[in-house]
Design brief:
The chain is an alpha/beta fold and 205 residues long. 41% of the residues lie in helices and 13% in strands. The protein has 8 helices and 7 strands. The protein has a 5-stranded mixed sheet. The protein has a two-stranded antiparallel sheet with strand order 1-2. Strand 3, helix 5 and strand 4 form a beta-alpha-beta unit. Helix 1 crosses helix 2. The termini are far apart. The structure holds zinc ion.
């Protein structure tokens, strides 16, 4: 018997899942394969729960129409909470950043999620993030401080500069998280102590 040299055993269902895992951030082809074969061996129930979780992630979540955080009720729980300080809005790039900041329990104001940062290199302009909606929120005069909590990297700094130029003429205090955060990092990976210091030590922009 001669071996067919170009032969590569492919099973469509396996390949398909490997490909999908491979599209996820931080998952290379090897990890994609490992996850797929893990699930193949796992109990049916586990695969079913994963599939259901993936479907409900898209079906049962939406963005808050006020702050654009991910939510299952609109407005979100933070926007609805009357205990929160409505005179402050903290601007973040991603919904995960809210999780990181909330975890510190130091901040009690509202949030606004931009869903990105301005990046001319990647062709992301001011209209591609939720800046227009932010400016609308600032119009009723209830906000007296905007805290710029965009990431301490090039895009985040550019976005903060741009926002400061738009917001400070409105007579609203604009602050930026303190420099304790190492440059080039992302907020969601900062530890609680560093983040707490960054909020407490925030400075006028
Ligand atoms: Zn909200």
């Amino acid at each position: 018997m001669r071996l067919n040299e170009g032969f590569r055993p492919t099973v469509e269902a396996v390949d398909k899942l490997v490909q999908e895992f491979n599209k996820l951030p931080g998952i290379g082809p090897k990890s994609a394969q490992r996850l797929t074969y893990y699930l193949l061996r796992a109990p049916d129930e586990q695969a079913r729960l994963l599939a259901e979780a993936l479907l409900s992630l898209k079906q049962e979540t939406r963005l808050c129409s006020v702050c654009f955080n991910v939510t299952d009720s609109d407005p979100c729980l933070i926007c609805c909470n009357n205990q929160r300080d409505r005179s402050k809005i903290c601007i973040v790039e991603q919904p995960q950043d809210i999780l990181a900041l909330e975890h510190t329990r130091i901040y009690n104001g509202l949030y606004h999620v931009l869903h990105g940062a301005i990046s001319p290199i990647e062709g992301v302009g001011a209209d591609d993030v939720r800046i227009k909606e932010l400016l609308q929120r600032l119009q009723d005069g209830t906000v007296d401080e905007v805290i710029l909590a965009t990431n301490p990297n090039l895009e985040g700094e550019q976005t903060a500069l741009y926002l400061n130029k738009l917001i400070s003429p409105l007579g609203i205090r604009v602050t930026r998280l303190a420099r304790g955060l190492p440059f080039g990092t992302e907020l969601e990976y900062a530890d609680d102590v560093t983040l707490t210091r960054a909020i407490e030590g925030r400075q006028e922009f």
